[in-house]
Amino acid sequence: MVGSSVRRSNRPFRGTAATKPPEVEVTQPQSSLTLRSTVVGIVVGTLICLSNTYFGLRTGFIAIMSLPSTILGFAFFKMVQDHLQFPFTPQEHTVLVVIASSLGLMPFTIGTVGILPAMEFLTGASENGPYHLDWIRLLVWSIGVSVLGVTVTLPLRRRFLVQEPLPFPFGTSSAAMIGSLHRDSKIAERILLAQNELDCVDNKDKRSARDDAEEFGDESLHRTWTRNNNLILLSFCLAALYSFSAYFLPQIRTVNIFGSYMAHTWLFSLSTSPGYVSIGLIVPPVTTLWIVVGCIVGWGVLSPMATIRGWAPGPVSDWDSGSRGWIMWIAVALILGDTAVTVSTMLLRTLSDYVFPYAADFLVSVSNTLPLGKRNRHFRNEDDTEPLLGFSEPSTTSVHTSSLSYQDDGWSASAYLWWIFMGLILCFVSMFILFGSSVPVMALVFAVLAILPLSHVNIRCYGETGTGGAAYIAKIPQFLFAFMVPSSDPNAILLSLAVAGVVEASVWQAAEMMDEFKMGHLVNTPPQSLFYGQLIGSLVGSLISMLVYRLYTTVFHFPSDGFPMPSAHVLISTARLVYGKGLPPGLVVFGVSASALGAAFKILKDLKRDSKLSSLVPSSVALAAGMYIMPEMILAQGIGGLIHFFVLKRWGNTKEAALISVATGFILGEGLFSLVTMLLQSLNVPHL
Phi/psi of residue 412, each to 5°? Predict the structure, then answer.
């Protein structure tokens, strides 16, 4: 694969805006999965993994860094372009982004910011905890849950890219960035065709993407990427300087903007972390708005009420007896209400799109009374008769469809089933090694088989909205699992967490992989290269992520003010809720009301999705995040959200890349420099 080459004409990496250089013969790799793209992808992904582990344990926030990966990867090859044997192609670029993104998101996928801390630090003695994982068990867990989601995505690629094309905002944005950086007008054309197909508008109603690519000269491109690289470097250095200074002067980490009473009693202060501000620069401003609203309602209204009424008599910061733990249950209720509507809607749509049409076909064949031409005109076409686990010759009537077949894309249905079977076996074996005979076989079979339909649901959710529901969809098997493992089983809570971890990892990976298939489809990258890139990123990332996690847990105390592990608390609370444990007083009425509100907000948001009023409908998940994350972090994100809003208001999307560059530098700088502070901590270097 690496090293084999063919001779073909290709556009050089550099040129001038005024004249086009003549085409030359260059040695080009036959596969887009090259050694250099793999190595750089692993390096970039490792940087993102380190940062995501740090911020995930502190805030529960995990950054989807596909666009920053695109910029960082291009910047590296731009710097060394004079020493390259052959030009850096958009297809290589795509594989690089796939490897970096999958590796960088491993802290969420294998649960080092949620499931594992909950098992190791939050389970009590009555729950057979704390359940500490040694290096061998940690490795078994990491490998066991890292590939199943990748394999179950394979047979769904044609369904969600051709037969029922979904927008996949992140994948489309990354493809557009790659096309812009490489000045590839064909990529711009493919994106335009895909958008026209989704929007049902004529090409002439939109500005030509080819014209945009041609007008974007190399001189302008050079200025843009140079500026963005400088922004990344500057913000990285500032964040590193902040982290270093904050270690020796920890008092600069927060500012008591509302006074010392509000800060110490009700935890209302402002973090000076540039990383938290960067979250607001990345997240859409309307989402940040509802997170801040959730913070005000949760910490400003519900927290004092629970304390004053005696429902949470302990210190506000205490997860068990304080109002912090009480309002966290309200957040869980909001999430569960939203999840119930999301999953129900997706299941109904799946039935409508797959089960009902084939049922109608069956009735037609039996009664011969219904016209065949009226069956599900919404999206089915002649290609839709293709078996889900098979291939047919691609149609040549559309650029969007014909790109689905490649020289290295000749997998059969048996190959698909083989990969899925291997993923299932790996998951089964790892669970039995970890939990042995305490795992009911049928319960584990049910949990693993539930991954297939739930992955389908999450792919649709992610493809339509750009926001996945993996963390919330994973709670569904927890409730069903309770019917198979009784509360009298001392391992019930641990097994519930393990089930949530397996399902969460798989359904998240499925959505992420399909998003990357979308990006590769638009850039015309062979799917097998993307699949192997995802496998490489997942396997390498599982090793790196578990190593970083164990370093953190060895040096720092968990949970603590510095690492409160909010995601782990939400997961353990849900597991206890399933078995009717741990509910604080005064919660029933507020919990039921919050769940109903979460469902109502989700329904309204779906009904108003295409309306300008959609942003006025609260996001249940955003409100919940504002309730279980500390106010100091939320207020810092709010400042970033204000900056994001005013930049978009003043310059539109033209400065979006600059915002992403600044945020990337801040997040990577603070996240990576946490390793330096970890070293200082382990050496017992004193604070000033």
Answer: -100, 175
Alpha helices (H) along 5-62: 35-59
Pairing type for strands 24-29 and 5-10 reads antiparallel
CA 534, 144, 166, 360 torsion: positive or negative?
Answer: positive
> In the chain, how long is the greatest CA-to-CA distance?
85
Residues across the chain: 688
First to last CA, the chain: 55
Backbone angles phi, psi at 41, to 5 degrees: -60, -40
The pLDDT of residue 591 is above 80: yes
Which residue in 114, 304, 282, 372 sits closest to 637, CA to CA?
Answer: 282
Query: How many C-beta neighbours within 10 Å does residue 198 have?
Result: 12
pTM of the complete model: 0.76
Predicted pLDDT at 472: 64
Phi, psi of 182 (to 5 degrees): -95, 0
pLDDT tens for 136-182 read 999 999 998 888 888 888 877 877 777 667 778 778 878 888 888 88
| Alpha carbons 78 and 287: distance in angstroms, whole number | 34
Q: How far apart (Å, rounded) are the C-alpha atoms in residues 270 and 251?
A: 12
Q: Where are the alpha helices (DSSP H) in 310-403?
A: 323-350, 356-367, 399-402
Give the confidence band of 359 by pLDDT, cuts at 50, 70, 90.
Answer: low
Q: Which amino acid is at 434?
A: L
Distances in Å between the alpha carbon of 171 and those of 64, 65, 101, 154, 402?
11, 11, 11, 17, 19
